[in-house]
Amino acid sequence: MGVTLSETVPLVPLPRHVTLAGPGRFRLGARPRVGVPSAELLGLGRVVAELLATAPGVEPVVVVGADAELRLVLSGETPAAPADLLDRPAGYEAYELETGESGATVTAATAEGLFRGATTFAQSLDQDGTAPAMRVSDAPALPWRGLSLDVVRRFFPVDQVKRVVDLLARYKFNVLHLHLTDSQAWRLEIDGRPRLTDPACWPGGEGSRNGTGRQHYTRDDFREITAYAAARFVTVVPEIDLPGHSHAVVTAYPELAGQAVHPLLAFLDPRAAAGFVEEVLGQVAELTPGPYLHVGGDEAFGMPHEQYAEFTAMSLRVARATGKRAVAWQEAARSGALTPQDLAQWWVGADHVFDAEELRGRTPAEYHPLIDIAAASFELAPGDLPKALASGVPVLASTSSTLYLDRQYAEDSLLPAQSERRGRVGMASYAPRTCRELFDWHPGELKEFGGAAPAGVEAAIWCESVADFDDLAFLLLPRLPAIAEKAWTQQVTGWADHRARVRGHAAAWERLGWGGYYRSAEVF
Ligand code: ACM
Prior knowledge:
By secondary structure, the protein is of the alpha/beta class. It has helices at residues 5-8, 42-52, 111-124, 158-170, 219-231, 247-252, 274-287, 305-321, 356-361, 368-379, 384-391, 400-403, 419-424, 435-438, 469-476, 480-488, 495-502, 506-511; strands spanning 17-27, 33-36, 61-64, 70-74, 95-100, 103-108, 130-138, 144-150, 175-179, 235-242, 292-296, 325-329, 343-346, 395-397, 456-461.
């Protein structure tokens, strides 16, 4: 059997059309020029240049004009750029790429399309800096392609978040959802509320520090992250998780607390915390250039329904009043307050596992009533998505069974040294699954949506078991690129073909600081 197209050009996510255009190859050289159409797009040229710095000694330069090895060309009428990803016209991110022996040209109607095309070109370069002559024509299936990163259970400093952005951009993701607050900590500076970000005021106290540095993002840190992401066409969606997951808030400011049955099930009171919600969401909205504000809404275990409904209606109203589009986890549908102007995030699919018996078996008896309360909430979960769809709110697919990446690997590693990590990293209560098993779904075929596609796909990585950046790499790779393919690629792709392409990416992961990736025997 000959070498397949997928092995020759390991593109992930797979573009809509790829054809090889003869035997010739383009050689990048040590000082390749990236040509942008105008001085206004020099910033785009610089981030594209980063993509091409594929080997030590390769130093791309950015020029204005077409006298370049990689030419970025705007064509046709550039459409207006609505901030909301869901409002973008068809073709907004589409591009054509043509590579010949003398160079490559990306053509698109928008800077974003040019960037998407440049990521495809960068993936087509082999380790020697040569690329096959080829033609690519491409456009995404879904307008929202995201990753939710839990920076609470593990705090990632700004430089590490930037590395995550780099990875997302290379796989054509366009959303980084930052889960900034939870029961253990609060990770974003809020003016006038210093106790929120002081580890001494968190439930775990000083012992909950991750390393010796600052334990939260200052306002300037947050601005730096959002600007870095925006330059790579990634929109940051900040999440302030309300009214549950609030143990840290109520430890710092007990006057905001509702009457909880147990400190571990802390929630905010809709009346006592109303001013706090306005204060916090107002500041976060002002700091955030993107059009979204995530207000949480998940797992407010033990909160009386009337109070939950009142709180959620209030937090959605406050978020909308900032001018942002409110995003909330699926439970918010129980409030009856979601509207088509909001966004809901579906995470408890039919095969979500909450095994109360199993949990009781490994938890001291004093916690069993809490497990019963959580179980009662999960019993309501099957009604959430139908309620959300009936309200007309667009829904993102984040089902835990396929899109939560804090799951242990079921297949072996080719590196025996990874076996300790394999047993330690990933949520212990999830059944381990292989990369191949996780590949077996498609957003266009979700029966729950009755044949329509979700508004987007968002993976999530929760970090209870993540001790450092290499643990993060271990859980994200090689699985994250498969999710990129689900969200971007219009046609249904098969595992064998995907595997043949993704295995060609390991050298790039090493180079980019993601060397902790899992050496899945099923992939490599
Ligand atoms: C969630 O996993 N609690 C959204």
